[in-house]
């Protein structure tokens, strides 16, 4: 399932358990469009998810059979893969998914050590938590980079800065380039955020009065 004969992460599992884990992750990803897991699992699931999108774009009997073998809920996921997702990524040459590193909720985990153990004199020993990440389908309703770019633009415009610069300009290009009606969709998102800001400001003013 790794594909291409290249190196891949074993994820501390044998081959069968590893494949079952990745199938479960990509099924959840295609159902919810975003999942949170460890960085290592996200990177491996990303490879399989991108392969599934490629199968969807081919839209052949062979590609349908292959996708059928991967999804745990093919009756729900195949229509989505070979329908809306195939249309969404029709013009995109690649990069159908994105992995974003996130800070773990707790930087240190602890596990107990029985008294008298030779492992350590203390009863509890700190253990670093695995790096966490968000794996998402790009150009979808839950695209985090799109949402963050819209919020940044709305905030800048509220301060009178209408022309994006630097990284923001680059992100605008990335989130609109292959999205259908990307610029218009982004402008609608900005307008919605601007309206929410005005309503919140009005509520605060009413409370003061």
From TrEMBL:
<keyword id="KW-0689">Ribosomal protein</keyword>
<comment type="similarity">
    <text>Belongs to the bacterial ribosomal protein bL17 family.</text>
</comment>
<dbReference type="Pfam" id="PF01196">
    <property type="entry name" value="Ribosomal_L17"/>
</dbReference>
<dbReference type="GO" id="GO:0003735">
    <property type="term" value="F:structural constituent of ribosome"/>
</dbReference>
<protein>
    <recommendedName>
        <fullName>Large ribosomal subunit protein bL17m</fullName>
    </recommendedName>
</protein>
<dbReference type="GO" id="GO:0005762">
    <property type="term" value="C:mitochondrial large ribosomal subunit"/>
</dbReference>
<keyword id="KW-0496">Mitochondrion</keyword>
<comment type="function">
    <text>Component of the mitochondrial ribosome (mitoribosome), a dedicated translation machinery responsible for the synthesis of mitochondrial genome-encoded proteins, including at least some of the essential transmembrane subunits of the mitochondrial respiratory chain. The mitoribosomes are attached to the mitochondrial inner membrane and translation products are cotranslationally integrated into the membrane.</text>
</comment>
<dbReference type="InterPro" id="IPR036373">
    <property type="entry name" value="Ribosomal_bL17_sf"/>
</dbReference>
<keyword id="KW-0687">Ribonucleoprotein</keyword>
<dbReference type="InterPro" id="IPR000456">
    <property type="entry name" value="Ribosomal_bL17"/>
</dbReference>
<dbReference type="GO" id="GO:0006412">
    <property type="term" value="P:translation"/>
</dbReference>
<dbReference type="InterPro" id="IPR047859">
    <property type="entry name" value="Ribosomal_bL17_CS"/>
</dbReference>
